[in-house]
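Troubleshooting: if your tokenizer reports a length mismatch, compare your output against this known-good record of 212 residues.
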Amino acid sequence: MRLFLIDYENVNSAGLDGISMLTQRDRVILFYSASANTISFDVYDELINSRVAFERLNLNSSGKNALDFQLVTYLGYLIAKQEAKEYYIISKDTGYCAALDFCKKQFGAKVQMKPSIKSAIAGKTPIPVKKKPVAVQRQPKSDTRMIGPEELLAQMDPPVPKDLAAEILSCMKESRTESEFHNALQNQIRSADTKRYYHHLKRYFKAIKAGK
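Known-good structure output:
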């Protein structure tokens, strides 16, 4: 059960905002005095429509911080009786901080201060976050097929004539090593572009010799 103690002198109707979101297992105790005893119609409608256990404590004692002292005293009494699992003081008065720290350290109580009921219960129901599917990038398979004259023409720049392309591939097929291929090009092609042909096809040499 969650228990909400409302410092109505401090927060007024705004502190009750969100009361309709509570359940019948929750409990709200409103501490009010002659200086703070009115409620807005909107919050009254929320209160009527809620299923929460609701109580009012009219504090007639006068004096500075009288309501605060009585609220804290009642909080200690409720904690001692183990009335709830979670306690909330609905107020903006930082004067409660020392009392809350004491209750946490001495009694191990789960007690917090919030400006309204709505802010107290915000995020209590976690919303599942949909993870974006991670796109798996497939690595392209290396092209290790036998390179024919047509493909050679498509890869060379400027284009190589078909007959010359066939002759270059013949040098590659007849060579056992890259060094032999280089020498075959120089001996048979006899062109200023021999070095360019060699460097362009060197990366395909092993694949072609493997017959893939």
